[in-house]
Amino acid sequence: MSTTDCEQGETGWGILEGLPGDPMIWVLIFSELAAFGLFLGAFVVARAIHPAMFAAGQATLDSHLAGLNTLVLVTSGWAAARATAAARASRRQAARGWLFAAMALGAFFIATKLFEYAGEIVLGNGLETSPFFTLYFLLTGFHLMHVCLGIVILALVSRSASVTGVETGAAFWHMVDLLWIVMFPIIYLVQQ
Amino acid sequence: MIPDRIDIAWIVLLGLALATLLVPPLVARPLLGNALLLIFAALKGRRIVLDFFDLRAAPALWRGLVSAWVLIVVLFAWLASAIVALV
Protein backbone atom coordinates (compact mmCIF):
# COMPACT_ATOMS: atom_id res chain seq x y z
CA MET A 1 0.00 0.00 0.00
CA SER A 2 1.46 3.38 -1.00
CA THR A 3 1.57 6.49 1.19
CA THR A 4 -1.17 8.05 -0.95
CA ASP A 5 -3.42 5.02 -0.37
CA CYS A 6 -2.87 5.31 3.39
CA GLU A 7 -3.75 9.02 3.37
CA GLN A 8 -6.95 8.36 1.39
CA GLY A 9 -7.89 5.58 3.78
CA GLU A 10 -7.46 7.85 6.81
CA THR A 11 -9.33 10.86 5.47
CA GLY A 12 -12.07 9.20 3.37
CA TRP A 13 -15.47 8.20 4.79
CA GLY A 14 -15.62 4.84 3.02
CA ILE A 15 -19.16 3.53 2.75
CA LEU A 16 -20.58 6.81 4.14
CA GLU A 17 -19.38 8.63 1.00
CA GLY A 18 -22.24 9.75 -1.22
CA LEU A 19 -24.61 10.80 1.57
CA PRO A 20 -25.63 14.50 1.60
CA GLY A 21 -23.85 16.65 4.21
CA ASP A 22 -21.15 15.75 6.69
CA PRO A 23 -20.92 11.93 7.08
CA MET A 24 -20.77 12.35 10.88
CA ILE A 25 -24.37 13.61 10.92
CA TRP A 26 -25.39 10.30 9.36
CA VAL A 27 -23.72 8.36 12.17
CA LEU A 28 -25.91 10.43 14.52
CA ILE A 29 -29.03 9.99 12.34
CA PHE A 30 -28.69 6.19 12.20
CA SER A 31 -28.10 6.06 15.97
CA GLU A 32 -31.18 8.21 16.62
CA LEU A 33 -33.34 6.13 14.28
CA ALA A 34 -32.25 2.97 16.11
CA ALA A 35 -33.01 4.51 19.53
CA PHE A 36 -36.42 5.87 18.49
CA GLY A 37 -37.23 2.58 16.74
CA LEU A 38 -36.65 0.66 19.98
CA PHE A 39 -38.59 3.25 21.98
CA LEU A 40 -41.57 3.07 19.61
CA GLY A 41 -41.34 -0.73 19.71
CA ALA A 42 -41.58 -0.57 23.51
CA PHE A 43 -44.65 1.69 23.22
CA VAL A 44 -46.32 -0.74 20.79
CA VAL A 45 -45.59 -3.76 23.02
CA ALA A 46 -46.84 -1.94 26.14
CA ARG A 47 -50.07 -1.04 24.30
CA ALA A 48 -50.54 -4.68 23.28
CA ILE A 49 -50.21 -5.66 26.96
CA HIS A 50 -52.49 -2.88 28.31
CA PRO A 51 -54.89 -2.06 25.42
CA ALA A 52 -57.65 -0.56 27.59
CA MET A 53 -55.27 1.69 29.54
CA PHE A 54 -53.62 2.94 26.34
CA ALA A 55 -57.00 3.55 24.65
CA ALA A 56 -58.14 5.60 27.68
CA GLY A 57 -54.91 7.62 27.68
CA GLN A 58 -55.02 8.17 23.92
CA ALA A 59 -58.62 9.44 24.18
CA THR A 60 -57.45 12.41 26.28
CA LEU A 61 -54.81 13.49 23.72
CA ASP A 62 -55.53 16.35 21.31
CA SER A 63 -54.99 14.63 17.94
CA HIS A 64 -56.10 17.76 16.04
CA LEU A 65 -53.34 19.84 17.61
CA ALA A 66 -50.84 17.06 16.87
CA GLY A 67 -52.21 16.86 13.32
CA LEU A 68 -51.65 20.60 12.91
CA ASN A 69 -48.09 20.06 14.11
CA THR A 70 -47.63 17.39 11.42
CA LEU A 71 -48.55 19.96 8.74
CA VAL A 72 -46.19 22.48 10.37
CA LEU A 73 -43.24 20.07 10.55
CA VAL A 74 -43.77 18.79 6.99
CA THR A 75 -43.78 22.40 5.75
CA SER A 76 -40.68 23.08 7.80
CA GLY A 77 -39.00 20.06 6.15
CA TRP A 78 -39.96 21.47 2.75
CA ALA A 79 -38.33 24.82 3.68
CA ALA A 80 -35.15 22.97 4.73
CA ALA A 81 -35.13 21.04 1.44
CA ARG A 82 -35.55 24.35 -0.44
CA ALA A 83 -32.62 25.76 1.57
CA THR A 84 -30.45 22.83 0.42
CA ALA A 85 -31.48 23.41 -3.21
CA ALA A 86 -30.69 27.15 -2.88
CA ALA A 87 -27.27 26.46 -1.29
CA ARG A 88 -26.42 24.01 -4.10
CA ALA A 89 -27.35 26.71 -6.63
CA SER A 90 -24.91 29.10 -4.83
CA ARG A 91 -27.81 31.31 -3.64
CA ARG A 92 -26.64 31.71 -0.04
CA GLN A 93 -29.03 34.52 0.88
CA ALA A 94 -32.01 32.49 -0.33
CA ALA A 95 -30.69 29.46 1.56
CA ARG A 96 -30.55 31.55 4.76
CA GLY A 97 -34.13 32.73 4.17
CA TRP A 98 -35.40 29.16 3.80
CA LEU A 99 -33.46 28.06 6.88
CA PHE A 100 -35.06 30.86 8.93
CA ALA A 101 -38.49 29.77 7.66
CA ALA A 102 -37.72 26.18 8.75
CA MET A 103 -36.58 27.43 12.18
CA ALA A 104 -39.67 29.63 12.62
CA LEU A 105 -41.95 26.69 11.85
CA GLY A 106 -39.90 24.55 14.23
CA ALA A 107 -40.47 27.17 16.95
CA PHE A 108 -44.21 27.07 16.18
CA PHE A 109 -44.10 23.26 16.59
CA ILE A 110 -42.47 23.68 20.02
CA ALA A 111 -45.03 26.27 21.14
CA THR A 112 -47.94 24.06 20.02
CA LYS A 113 -46.42 21.02 21.75
CA LEU A 114 -45.97 22.95 25.02
CA PHE A 115 -49.59 24.12 24.76
CA GLU A 116 -50.62 20.48 24.31
CA TYR A 117 -48.55 19.42 27.35
CA ALA A 118 -50.20 22.19 29.40
CA GLY A 119 -53.62 20.81 28.42
CA GLU A 120 -52.60 17.32 29.55
CA ILE A 121 -51.23 18.61 32.85
CA VAL A 122 -54.45 20.59 33.50
CA LEU A 123 -56.35 17.31 33.03
CA GLY A 124 -54.16 15.79 35.75
CA ASN A 125 -52.03 13.68 33.42
CA GLY A 126 -48.31 13.52 34.16
CA LEU A 127 -45.27 11.30 33.80
CA GLU A 128 -46.43 8.99 36.59
CA THR A 129 -50.15 8.86 35.80
CA SER A 130 -49.94 5.57 33.89
CA PRO A 131 -47.49 3.63 31.67
CA PHE A 132 -49.22 5.25 28.68
CA PHE A 133 -48.44 8.77 29.89
CA THR A 134 -44.92 7.82 30.97
CA LEU A 135 -44.17 6.62 27.43
CA TYR A 136 -46.15 9.47 25.82
CA PHE A 137 -44.24 12.19 27.68
CA LEU A 138 -40.86 10.47 27.27
CA LEU A 139 -41.27 9.76 23.55
CA THR A 140 -42.73 13.14 22.58
CA GLY A 141 -40.42 14.96 25.02
CA PHE A 142 -37.35 13.22 23.58
CA HIS A 143 -38.56 14.20 20.11
CA LEU A 144 -39.18 17.79 21.25
CA MET A 145 -35.57 17.98 22.49
CA HIS A 146 -34.48 16.98 18.98
CA VAL A 147 -36.63 19.73 17.47
CA CYS A 148 -34.86 22.24 19.78
CA LEU A 149 -31.44 20.81 18.85
CA GLY A 150 -32.40 20.89 15.16
CA ILE A 151 -33.21 24.61 15.38
CA VAL A 152 -29.80 25.26 16.98
CA ILE A 153 -28.06 23.26 14.21
CA LEU A 154 -30.00 25.13 11.48
CA ALA A 155 -29.08 28.46 13.12
CA LEU A 156 -25.40 27.46 13.20
CA VAL A 157 -25.26 26.32 9.55
CA SER A 158 -27.17 29.43 8.39
CA ARG A 159 -24.17 31.60 9.34
CA SER A 160 -21.99 30.34 6.48
CA ALA A 161 -24.82 28.72 4.45
CA SER A 162 -22.21 26.52 2.75
CA VAL A 163 -23.49 23.57 0.72
CA THR A 164 -22.13 20.94 3.13
CA GLY A 165 -23.32 22.91 6.17
CA VAL A 166 -26.86 23.36 4.89
CA GLU A 167 -27.04 19.72 3.73
CA THR A 168 -25.87 18.62 7.19
CA GLY A 169 -28.40 20.76 9.08
CA ALA A 170 -31.22 19.81 6.71
CA ALA A 171 -30.42 16.07 7.05
CA PHE A 172 -30.83 16.32 10.85
CA TRP A 173 -34.05 18.32 10.40
CA HIS A 174 -35.50 15.74 7.99
CA MET A 175 -34.76 13.04 10.57
CA VAL A 176 -36.80 15.02 13.13
CA ASP A 177 -39.59 15.28 10.51
CA LEU A 178 -39.42 11.54 9.68
CA LEU A 179 -39.59 10.56 13.36
CA TRP A 180 -42.73 12.65 13.90
CA ILE A 181 -44.39 11.27 10.75
CA VAL A 182 -44.06 7.75 12.18
CA MET A 183 -44.72 8.66 15.84
CA PHE A 184 -47.88 10.68 15.23
CA PRO A 185 -50.21 7.88 14.02
CA ILE A 186 -48.73 5.28 16.40
CA ILE A 187 -49.22 7.43 19.52
CA TYR A 188 -52.32 9.48 18.66
CA LEU A 189 -54.40 7.56 16.14
CA VAL A 190 -53.87 3.78 16.06
CA GLN A 191 -56.85 2.17 17.77
CA GLN A 192 -57.11 -1.03 19.78
CA MET B 1 -42.80 29.30 -10.82
CA ILE B 2 -43.01 25.66 -11.91
CA PRO B 3 -43.18 23.27 -8.93
CA ASP B 4 -40.20 20.93 -8.81
CA ARG B 5 -39.73 17.53 -7.12
CA ILE B 6 -39.39 19.14 -3.66
CA ASP B 7 -42.62 21.16 -4.05
CA ILE B 8 -44.54 18.13 -5.35
CA ALA B 9 -43.28 16.03 -2.41
CA TRP B 10 -44.48 18.75 0.00
CA ILE B 11 -47.96 18.84 -1.60
CA VAL B 12 -48.17 15.02 -1.49
CA LEU B 13 -47.08 15.05 2.17
CA LEU B 14 -49.71 17.65 3.08
CA GLY B 15 -52.36 15.60 1.27
CA LEU B 16 -51.34 12.40 3.06
CA ALA B 17 -51.22 14.22 6.43
CA LEU B 18 -54.78 15.50 5.90
CA ALA B 19 -55.93 12.05 4.72
CA THR B 20 -54.41 10.58 7.91
CA LEU B 21 -56.58 12.89 10.04
CA LEU B 22 -59.70 11.76 8.16
CA VAL B 23 -59.15 8.04 8.79
CA PRO B 24 -60.32 7.77 12.45
CA PRO B 25 -63.72 9.49 11.92
CA LEU B 26 -64.39 7.76 8.59
CA VAL B 27 -63.11 4.21 9.16
CA ALA B 28 -64.75 2.51 12.13
CA ARG B 29 -63.00 -0.89 11.83
CA PRO B 30 -59.68 -0.70 13.74
CA LEU B 31 -57.89 -3.33 11.61
CA LEU B 32 -58.57 -1.46 8.37
CA GLY B 33 -58.21 1.99 9.93
CA ASN B 34 -54.84 1.14 11.48
CA ALA B 35 -53.63 -0.37 8.20
CA LEU B 36 -54.59 2.84 6.34
CA LEU B 37 -52.94 5.08 8.97
CA LEU B 38 -49.70 3.13 8.84
CA ILE B 39 -49.67 2.81 5.03
CA PHE B 40 -50.03 6.62 4.86
CA ALA B 41 -47.15 6.94 7.37
CA ALA B 42 -44.97 4.63 5.24
CA LEU B 43 -45.79 6.61 2.08
CA LYS B 44 -44.96 9.91 3.82
CA GLY B 45 -41.72 8.40 5.11
CA ARG B 46 -40.80 7.26 1.59
CA ARG B 47 -41.33 10.78 0.20
CA ILE B 48 -39.18 12.29 2.97
CA VAL B 49 -36.41 9.72 2.36
CA LEU B 50 -36.32 10.23 -1.41
CA ASP B 51 -37.16 13.92 -1.87
CA PHE B 52 -36.33 15.77 1.38
CA PHE B 53 -33.33 13.72 2.57
CA ASP B 54 -32.50 13.51 -1.15
CA LEU B 55 -31.31 9.91 -0.88
CA ARG B 56 -32.46 9.16 -4.44
CA ALA B 57 -28.88 9.52 -5.67
CA ALA B 58 -27.25 8.13 -2.51
CA PRO B 59 -25.90 4.56 -2.30
CA ALA B 60 -28.74 2.01 -2.29
CA LEU B 61 -27.54 0.64 1.06
CA TRP B 62 -28.36 3.87 2.95
CA ARG B 63 -31.56 4.57 1.03
CA GLY B 64 -32.64 1.00 1.78
CA LEU B 65 -31.69 1.21 5.46
CA VAL B 66 -33.71 4.37 6.16
CA SER B 67 -36.67 3.06 4.13
CA ALA B 68 -36.44 -0.29 5.96
CA TRP B 69 -36.53 1.53 9.32
CA VAL B 70 -39.84 3.16 8.36
CA LEU B 71 -41.30 -0.12 7.09
CA ILE B 72 -40.20 -2.17 10.11
CA VAL B 73 -41.62 0.34 12.64
CA VAL B 74 -45.02 0.71 10.92
CA LEU B 75 -45.33 -3.04 10.22
CA PHE B 76 -44.53 -3.87 13.84
CA ALA B 77 -47.11 -1.33 15.03
CA TRP B 78 -49.77 -2.75 12.71
CA LEU B 79 -49.00 -6.39 13.55
CA ALA B 80 -49.18 -5.71 17.30
CA SER B 81 -52.52 -3.92 16.96
CA ALA B 82 -53.85 -6.67 14.65
CA ILE B 83 -52.84 -9.44 17.07
CA VAL B 84 -54.59 -7.67 19.97
CA ALA B 85 -57.71 -7.12 17.83
CA LEU B 86 -57.86 -10.76 16.68
CA VAL B 87 -57.01 -12.52 19.96
TrEMBL record, chain A:
<dbReference type="InterPro" id="IPR035973">
    <property type="entry name" value="Cyt_c_oxidase_su3-like_sf"/>
</dbReference>
<feature type="transmembrane region" description="Helical">
    <location>
        <begin position="135"/>
        <end position="158"/>
    </location>
</feature>
<dbReference type="InterPro" id="IPR013833">
    <property type="entry name" value="Cyt_c_oxidase_su3_a-hlx"/>
</dbReference>
<dbReference type="Pfam" id="PF00510">
    <property type="entry name" value="COX3"/>
</dbReference>
<dbReference type="GO" id="GO:0019646">
    <property type="term" value="P:aerobic electron transport chain"/>
</dbReference>
<dbReference type="GO" id="GO:0005886">
    <property type="term" value="C:plasma membrane"/>
</dbReference>
<keyword id="KW-0472">Membrane</keyword>
<protein>
    <submittedName>
        <fullName>Cytochrome c oxidase subunit 3 family protein</fullName>
    </submittedName>
</protein>
<feature type="transmembrane region" description="Helical">
    <location>
        <begin position="170"/>
        <end position="190"/>
    </location>
</feature>
<dbReference type="GO" id="GO:0004129">
    <property type="term" value="F:cytochrome-c oxidase activity"/>
</dbReference>
<comment type="similarity">
    <text>Belongs to the cytochrome c oxidase subunit 3 family.</text>
</comment>
<keyword id="KW-0812">Transmembrane</keyword>
<keyword id="KW-1133">Transmembrane helix</keyword>
<dbReference type="InterPro" id="IPR024791">
    <property type="entry name" value="Cyt_c/ubiquinol_Oxase_su3"/>
</dbReference>
<dbReference type="InterPro" id="IPR000298">
    <property type="entry name" value="Cyt_c_oxidase-like_su3"/>
</dbReference>
<feature type="transmembrane region" description="Helical">
    <location>
        <begin position="24"/>
        <end position="46"/>
    </location>
</feature>
<feature type="domain" description="Heme-copper oxidase subunit III family profile">
    <location>
        <begin position="25"/>
        <end position="192"/>
    </location>
</feature>
<feature type="transmembrane region" description="Helical">
    <location>
        <begin position="97"/>
        <end position="115"/>
    </location>
</feature>
